[in-house]
């Protein structure tokens, strides 16, 4: 809300009353504080004057005489106080007795009224009960006042007896010191009055400060209420704007979500196409590798057969009969090891299949060579016998 709107607002009527009370209480504080300072100053001056007057009388009368007469005046003060308390207890006893007497009179009256009526009167019965309760309470106060009066009277009699004894034994000293204690009593009364004024002004200051606090609290409460009303008004004025803004934000958020979803779908489609392309290329490469491997496998056996066909004839022409027998025995042993290796290679993975086929081709070529050598050695009967012996040994 702008400053012009604040100025146009109607002022709460309570604000004027609270401000007036605040100003009045502030003025009362100032006045009471001035009076309090004056009372403190007067009390100090009276105390100083008491000291001067009593000091002069003490020098004139003598400190020893004053000390001897002091017990009498203390006993006099004690007796006066006891007498005052006894008189007050007597007054309380009289008041309790009077209250009891009146309550009894009411009880008797209500009882007669109930006896006159032929029907039960609830209102009259309630009054009778209240009067009976008052009689009981007055009786309790009377007994309590009687106890207090008895005790205070006994205290007064004891104090009075002590006072009379001191008056008889110290009569001359009492008369001689009478000016001192009279002056002291006079100053004590004046100081007591100043003390009462001082206490009254202190209470006035405290009361005025409490009024200031109450006025400030009222202004604070009024201010809080005004701020709450302003907040409610501002909230009501902003409802339409907040609603419009919320709708716009919701629409913008929906558009952002739709755009993000569309981008996500496009990205997933691109990733899917890229994955399909990569898969296709990988399949083509695997197919090409398989064709190259098959072509190499077809070429390897032909080369091995050519080598095997030419190599035995050359070796047959160059080796002797003893060499042939040793070669046959060695080939028989190697053949058994190859059978064992073939069984273990069957359980291995497919990556070693090409190596196994190459090794089979070499074995085949070696077997053909061994066969050709065996055919050559069959012409000699001794070579056949020697070939059987290494075979048995190998087994």
Describe the structure.
By secondary structure, this protein is mainly α. Helix content is 93%, strand content 0%.
Short précis:
This protein is mainly α and 395 residues long.
Write the layout of secondary structure elements.
Blueprint lengths: L2 H6 L4 H49 L1 H54 L5 H48 L1 H6 L1 H60 L1 H80 L2 H26 L6 H25 L3 H14 L1
Features of the shown structure:
mainly alpha, 2 domains, 10 helices, elongated
The chain-level mean pLDDT equals: 75
The unreliable regions are 1-8, 308-319, 334-359, 364-395
Structural class category: mainly alpha
Describe the largest sheet.
none
Percentage of residues in strands: under 5%
Distance between the termini: 115 Å
Query: Would you report the number of β strands?
Result: 0
Query: Regarding CATH, which class of the largest domain?
Result: Mainly Alpha
Could you state the order of secondary-structure elements as H and E? Answer: HHHHHHHHHH
